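Table 4 source record.
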Amino acid sequence: MELRKTERKKAKIKMALQGASGSGKTYSSLLLAKGLSNGNLDKVAIIDTENGSADLYAHLGNYQVISLKPPYTPEQYIQALNICEQAGMEVVIIDSITHSWEELLDFHSKLAGNSFTNWAKVTPRQKAFTDKILQCNAHVIATMRTKQDYVLNQKDGKFIPEKVGLKAVQRDGIDYEFTLVFDIDIKHFAVSSKDRTSLFINKPEFIISEHTGKKILEWCNMGTSVSELDNINQTAREKIVIPSLSTEIQNCNSFAELLVLYKKQDTQQQEAYRSDFEFKKNQLFAITNPQNISNYGNQPQ
């Protein structure tokens, strides 16, 4: 036992995305993973319990898939995580951890005897699973389905029912285990409900992109001591974490602004940030034409 000064070390992000069915959790996770892996999807694996939904987005790149079959026991998830680690995966997406909890609830309901004391047979299995996620030598993105309800929103003088997500279907307090939690609504906009990185806390809702994953990766790789961070003002910290041109691109509010910014760059910068410009252009188009958003959520069969 010894006393030492605190030090900010490089980290592997452990994060969760929660939202209703169709909110785009799988697609958003893949975009995050693409950023976290610096565009190398060969080093990304999806542990899929969603009946092959991981294969719907194969056009994004050659990522790896492990398909789990019922019963979705915590032990099966742990085995899959071990396989991903042994294969040298840099990012692991668990889509989703809701099925593991539903399996444990079903297991508990079938146990004979006292219901309260029977939780002693469930809790260690859940803890072993969450411990494996936290100790995994890779970035981990876990998705969680939320319970659904409908609310009436007024549009053009008419009340239209819209699906909303409520509480995540997982053990109470599961969000405490993660460094970062994004809540995604049915229109695919995300907001952080928990954020130890301080990158997204109190920020307006946004659509997750590959750039979001890059920001998180830069935070993970900072490796700066806490004492040094305390002496850096907020503006300087943002400059360290977010490349200035990427920030300018994200701050564009119209096609005209984006075009002016693009033309200000030399050919090398235009090429280096082409994916950021293209994403922002598509994002602006999606916002102004919401009926055209179709990349996220469940695809028509």
